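Reopening closed ticket. The problem is back. First fold of the pair:
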Amino acid sequence: MTAPTASKVAIVTGGSRGIGLAIAQRLARDGFAVVINYAGNTAKARQAVADIESRGGRAIALQSDIGDPSSVDALFQGTLQVFGRIDVVVNSAGIMSLVPIGASSLADFDKIIATNLRGAFLVLGQAAEHLQEGGRIIALTTSVIAKSFPGYGPYIASKAGVEGLVRVLANELSGRGITVNAVAPGPVGTELFLEGKTPEQIARLAGLAPLQRLGTPEDIAGAVAFLAGPDGGWVNAQVLRANGGFA
C-alpha cells in the first residue's frame, strides 16, 4: 500500500548501523521520512525503523546490494512507490579491509571497489536520475586519504574515486539546482572502526586530531544534516572533512 506523499524524503544507504544509522536518525529528527537501506541484517534494520518511529518519525527499511544495478534501481523504485518522491540521497554504505598493495590482496581490492566505488557510482547515478530541483546528494568518503597509512591502499583508492565522482556529478547536474557533496570523517568510534584494534592503537588514532578524541557518529550526522538542510544550499562540489583537525 502506498503511503501519503511525504514532505521530504531521504534515502540513507548503510543506514542500519554506525554512521549511517546516526545519519538516518538525525534526518528523521529534522523532518525527513527516511528510507534505511541495508545489505543483509534485517533485524538491525527493523530496529532502526522502530527507534525512529518511537520518536515520532517516519521510516522504512529496504534491502539492496548497492553494487548491483538492478538492486539499486529497486531501492529507488521502492522509495518512490512508498513515498512518491526523493529529496536527499546519502551514500553511507561501505566496507574496509586493511591489506597491503599486491597480488595477494586482489580479492580484497575487488570487493572494496565493488561496494565503495561501484556502489557509489550506481547510487549517485540513480540519485541524479530521480532528484528534482533542490535535491541534495551526499557521499561518505574518508579523511584517511590525506594520511596514506600502510594497509589502507584499496580503501583509500575507493574513497578517492568517490570524491572524484562527487565533483564530476556536480558539474553534470549544472543548471538543475541539485547539490552534490561529500563528507569525509576522520576516525569515528563505531563498531566497524574499533573491531580488531588494541586500546593502544585506538588511543593513538584518537590523539592524532587536535581535539584529542575520536569522532562520534552524531558528529558526522550533523555535518550531513547541514548539507541536506536549508543552510547547505550554497555548498556544492565540496568535500567537508569532519575530522576534528585529523587531516
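Second fold of the pair, where the issue appears:
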Amino acid sequence: MTPRFAVTVSLVPEANGGPFIFWGDLDASCRRARDLGYDGIELFAPSPAALGDDLARCLARHGLKLAGAGTGAGWVLHKLSLTAPDREERLRAREFIRSIVDAAARHGAPAIIGSMQGRWGGAVTRDAALGFLAEAVADLAAHAGRLGVALLVEPLNRYESNVLSTLGDGIKLLERVGDPHAGLLADAFHMNIEEQDLAGALRAAGPRLRHVQLADSNRRPAGCGHTDFGAIVTALREIRYEGWVSAEAVPWPDPDAAARRSIQTFRSLFP
C-alpha cells in the first residue's frame, strides 16, 4: 500500500479560518509542497477559472498532481445547495459543480461534493433532501465518467450538514445512485465526530472509498490530537486502499509547520 500524499490549498479568502493548510499564493504553496515531498495538492478554488492554464503550468513547474478539487465555494461565495427548497437554486448549484468537474477533469482529478450537500429542515424533509442529492449526484457522476474522472461525496459532521453524516450514509446514497463513477471521500475529522467505529466504517466502504483526508480530532495536523491513526491505516491496508491521502487541517501553528508535521506523520503511518 503506497498512497500518494497531498496537501490542501485554498484560493478563497472568504473561507479564511477553514481547514486548509496553505492559503492564497498558489505558486508558493506548490513550491513548498514540492520541497516537503508531497505528490500533489487538493485545491479549494473560487471558480473553474482557477483550475485553468495557470494551475496546469504551476503543477508542471513543481512536478505535482491535482489530487482533487473542492466545490464548496459554491456555498461559501454563492450560498448554493443541492438540497435547497427552490428548484432553480438546486439547478444553479448543480451547474456550478459541473463547471468544477469540467475544469478538474483537465487535470485528471475528481471534484468533491462536501458543503454543497446543504441541510434538510423546514420545507425540505430528510427524504426529500436525499432524493435531491441522489438525483444531482447521479447526473454529475455520469458527466464525470464521460470525462474519465470520478465524483467524490464527502459525509460531513452534523454541525456542517445533516444530510450525509457517516460513511454508511454515503454508501446508501451511492447504492441509490448506482454509478461507479461516484465514490466516497473519508475525512477523519468528521468521522471522529460521527462514527462509532472509524476502522469499521472504512472497511464497510471498501472499494467505494476513493480519497482520504487526515486531520486529528482537534482539526490540527495528524499527530496533534487523540485520533487512533494506527487503526485507520490498518483498515485501509485491509481494503487495499491506494488512493490519495490528503492533509486537510487548520494551519496550526502556522502553514509551514502544519504541512511539515502532516507529511512526517503520513510517512510514519505509511512507511
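Update: turned out to be a display glitch only; the data is intact. Strands lie at 4-10, 22-23, 40-44, 65-70, 111-113, 151-153, 182-187, 209-214, 244-247. The mean pLDDT is 97. Please close again.
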